[in-house]
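hiii so um. not sure if this is the right channel but i have a protein structure encoded as tokens and i wanna go backwards to a sequence. like what aa goes where. can anyone help
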């Protein structure tokens, strides 16, 4: 269904056309009214006054509608029909007029009838009236002049002038509306493309988040349970499993899991990292460096989760040898966390596509908050640098 946003340019164009038509019609209408009053001053019948009202009451309503921007099509249609009726009845009510040699006041409104049709009717009807109104007027003038040669020249000039002008008006209106429709269509396609791209990005983000959740919580809990060989290790595995189930149950509340954008101090990041080390049973410390500051809560949560995954990797693959965590603040400008171990290292390029511990839980998670993750690994150990800088 076409909404108001998609028709924005078309509606603006209709408003512009209505305003321009109102100005031109008001000028021609005033000119015709002056001529009509001059004719009525020499004697007018009741029928002629009624004919004047049939034309000018709808014309006034159309001008008012064009100004306020409401009911334009309806009032323009009423005027166009009323004008056709008045034009057809002209020879009957003005048969005895002594002013046949001059252009009658109704002639000045021929193109006003055409623009009214442009506002009210479809293009095919506009074209018919653009041809019909000048020809009807010409025939009426010839009938009034008994088809004398004196009338042929002046009438042919009037008809050709109004006919050409009417065709030009209809063509311009059609062209402007076509351009506006093209702009609206292009805008609609652009919005649809953007919506599709945004939906695709949201799906991909949700997939990465779910994969990271599965790896961080579920897989880690399963590994901990499989390796539990003491009461403390089993209690830790149970706690990790409980946390994994809770996070899976709340997967729809992504914002609640990832945290809000309310500012968080770097000291809280340090506290979260120390808690993670304690929960994972790691015998390591968190070293604080730099200047404390405030960063968005969502960024702090992403840094903590990525660092937690790096710590988990160090415990799993390097048995926690030489594990060391450094948290460095740069005031409100940014923060970085470095996780170092002295394990055997690994080759990042050889890790399978289905292994999400680094790609999803660390790299993708940091990229989602406009941060970065740098991983250097070799025989001397592994160094994971998580950093975020305020744009």
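sure thing!! here u go:
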């Amino acid at each position: 269904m076409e909404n108001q946003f998609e028709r924005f340019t078309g509606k603006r164009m209709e408003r512009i056309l209505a305003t321009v038509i109102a100005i031109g019609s008001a000028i021609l209408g005033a000119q015709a009214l002056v001529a009509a009053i001059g004719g009525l001053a020499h004697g007018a019948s009741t029928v002629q006054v009624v004919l004047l009202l049939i034309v000018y009451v709808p014309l006034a309503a159309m001008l008012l509608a064009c100004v306020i921007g409401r009911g334009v099509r309806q009032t323009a249609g009423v005027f166009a029909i009323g004008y056709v009726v008045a034009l057809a009845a002209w020879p009957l009510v003005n048969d005895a007029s002594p002013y046949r040699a001059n252009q009658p006041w109704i002639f000045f409104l021929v193109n006003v009838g055409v623009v009214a049709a442009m506002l009210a009717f479809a293009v095919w009807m506009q074209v018919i009236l653009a041809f019909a109104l000048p020809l009807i007027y010409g025939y009426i003038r010839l009938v009034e002049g008994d088809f004398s040669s004196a009338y042929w020249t002046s009438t042919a000039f009037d008809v050709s002038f109004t006919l050409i002008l009417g065709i030009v008006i209809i063509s311009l209106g059609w062209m402007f509306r076509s351009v506006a429709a093209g702009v609206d269509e292009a805008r609609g396609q652009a919005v649809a493309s953007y919506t599709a791209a945004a939906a695709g990005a949201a799906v991909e983000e949700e997939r990465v988040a779910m994969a990271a959740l599965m790896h961080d919580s579920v897989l880690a809990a399963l590994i901990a349970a499989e390796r539990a060989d003491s009461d403390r290790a089993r209690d830790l595995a149970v706690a990790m499993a409980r946390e994994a189930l809770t996070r899976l149950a709340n997967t729809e509340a992504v914002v609640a899991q990832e945290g809000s954008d309310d500012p968080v101090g770097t000291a809280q990041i340090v506290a979260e990292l120390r808690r993670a080390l304690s929960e994972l049973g790691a015998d390591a410390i968190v070293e604080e460096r730099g200047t404390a500051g405030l960063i968005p809560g969502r960024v702090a949560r992403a840094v903590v989760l990525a660092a937690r995954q790096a710590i988990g990797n160090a415990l799993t693959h390097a048995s926690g040898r030489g594990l060391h965590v450094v948290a460095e603040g740069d005031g409100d400008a940014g923060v970085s966390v470095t996780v170092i171990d002295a394990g055997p290292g690994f080759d990042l390029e050889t890790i399978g596509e289905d292994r999400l511990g680094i790609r999803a839980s660390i790299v993708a998670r940091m990229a989602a908050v406009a941060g970065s993750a740098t991983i250097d690994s070799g025989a001397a150990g592994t160094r994971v640098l998580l950093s975020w800088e305020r744009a």
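oh and The CA atoms of residues 27 and 131 lie 23 Å apart.
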